[in-house]
Amino acid sequence: MRDTSVERIPGIVSGLRHSFGTGLTRPAAWRREQLRRLRGLLVERGAEFEAALLADLGKSATEAQLTEIGFLLAEIEHALDELSGWMRPRRVPVPLALQPATARVVPEPLGVALIIAPWNYPLMLALSPLVGALAAGNAAIVKPSELAPATAELIARLVPDALDRRAVAVVTGGVPETTALLAERFDHIFYTGNGRVGRIVARAAAEHLTPITLELGGKSPVYIDDSVPIADAARRIAWGKFMNAGQTCVAPDYVLASAAVLRELGPALRAAIHELYGSASQRNPDYGRIVSDAQFARLTGYLADGEVLVGGEHDAADRWIAPTVLGGVPRDAAVMRDEIFGPILPLVEVTGLDDALGFVTGRDKPLAAYIFSEDRAVRARWEAETSSGALGFGIPALHLAAPELPFGGVGESGMGAYHGERSFRTFSHEKAVLSKPLRPETLAATIMPPFTRAKAALARGPLQRFL
Ligand code: NAD
Q1: Which among 124, 212, 216 is the best mutation to test ligand 1's pocket, defined by most ligand atoms within 8 Å of the CB?
Q2: Which residues sit with their C-beta closer than 6 Å to ligand 1?
């Protein structure tokens, strides 16, 4: 696939801006039509998307359906069901002092959105923000990740054909193409990826005062205590961690637990991994591959950071790393500094709850934190004392499948949120509309000069209560 020529980029943006200016994208009917066509594309060409995801990430067809295609279909269905409610202007109360008047919050599209996607869920993370952008009535450019080339090629080939080309474009390429895009003025930039590039995006957006959503990563901790059935917790932790070979932004990054819990957890994770992927994950089609040689080299470098309790085998030619659990990991090891983003799960010993809370609050705010405890007081402390994009009690990652929950990070893990209605709001401006009849003129006697004694008294008294 040829990358989009950098020279074409300004023209693509101005074409979309022109289309937006004509009002093309605003009607509910146009938005619905685009969402239906996107749904049709995902259903009719599902097998091709599955094949691309297999080529890029060794992703099984079932996992592709569960985490990418099916996720998108559910997102589209939800948007189609809810769109008229989301678009409806919301009447809000007016203070007594302003009456008679009516006030409404009217959502309007922002204009032209830029969506920059990463490689780990290369279809879902490119098109899920697009669902929000289209539902909100915007024109949009999607820039898929060059590190998932088969999926990027398919998106570039199929999406503009399926949707309205006047308002939706796909730009392919890597740093030069994204840099050229970022030089243009957009009305919203939605970036998913790492914090280093997130900063580049934020700087570029600042030039045009463009609002941004940054969906970033980080080290999402797991805390587990002895109040839960360890085998059940281990199965869920292993599922969340080793899905997509650990290359999931909301995957559990590491586990904190007491020495006694860790003694049980190691064997329980071994059993869970065996249950999910058998004894030979390299031959198991349900288990994925590392996206690139560079990522493979980075990940295998972590294997020396602890004692290999489970897995550890790897094959560079196949970019396969077995689901791996590391024990006895020092807190300052490299595997505990960087976001792992691969199938390696370090277990870190803590002395107790306070130690675990201190460990997490002493580091960057993560995208998610997962607590396995039946003790309500323990759960309440995690909820009250730590900050993270999301908090999962007893379950990793699945908060992203509840469309009413805003999905996003905080601090180093990002800013802004999406999914469901939050996607619609992210790509909308909420316009404040106040409407007051010219007659009767209530303002002359209250807030307009000349400021008589009576008005001065009003300003110091009743008006303060009624404004
Ligand atoms: P990536 O390397 O594919 O980069 C993401 C996008 O940034 C790509 O489209 C790429 O072309 C572009 N890009 C790269 N360098 C650039 C530059 N110098 N200037 C402009 N654009 C540039 O993906 P990645 O960043 O390796 O993705 C992994 C990260 O994303 C992890 O940190 C992960 O946690 C995070 N992530 C977050 C979420 C979320 O929803 N919060 C989801 C998935 C991944």
Answers
A1: 216
A2: 116-120, 125, 143, 145-147, 174-175, 178-179, 192-194, 197, 200, 215-217, 249, 339, 341, 367, 409, 414
Tokens representing 190 are: 């939605």
> For the packed helices 353-361 and 376-385, what is the interaxial angle rounded to 10 degrees?
20
Tokens representing residue 334 in the block: 């490299």
Contacts of residue 416, Cβ cutoff 8 Å, sequence gap at least 6: 212, 213, 214, 215, 408, 426
pLDDT at 463: 79
Q: Which residues contact 463 (CB under 8 A, 6 or more apart)?
A: 97, 446, 447
d(CA 50, CA 151): 9
* Partners of residue 257 on adjacent β-strands: 349
The residues assigned a catalytic role are 215, 249
User: Residue written as tokens 């203070």?
Assistant: 95
Q: What residues pair up with 49 in beta bridges, in sequence order?
A: none
At 327 the pLDDT is 97
Q: Which residue, judged by its Cα, is nearest atom 6 of ligand 1? A: 118
Angstrom distance (rounded) from CA 298 to CA 305? 12
Q: How many CA atoms lie within 13 A of 367 on its CB side?
A: 30
Q: Which residues of 126-151 are buried (b: 16+ CB within 10 A; e: fewer)?
A: bbbbbbbbbbbbbbbbbbbbbbbbbb
φ/ψ of 169, rounded to 5, equals: -135, 155
CA nearest neighbour of 424 among 193, 198, 105:
105
Query: Three-state SS for 393?
Result: strand
Residue-level pLDDT at 467: 65
Give pLDDT < 70 ranges for the chain: 466-467
Sheet with 168-170, edge to edge strand ranges: 168-170, 139-143, 112-116, 188-192, 212-215, 414-415
| Nearest-angstrom CA–CA distance, 422 and 409 | 13
The pTM of this model reads 0.96
CA-based angle 227:232:237, to the nearest 5? Answer: 100
pLDDT digits (tens, 9 = 90+) for 231-280: 999 999 999 999 999 999 999 999 999 999 999 999 999 999 999 999 99
Token reading at 212: 């941004």
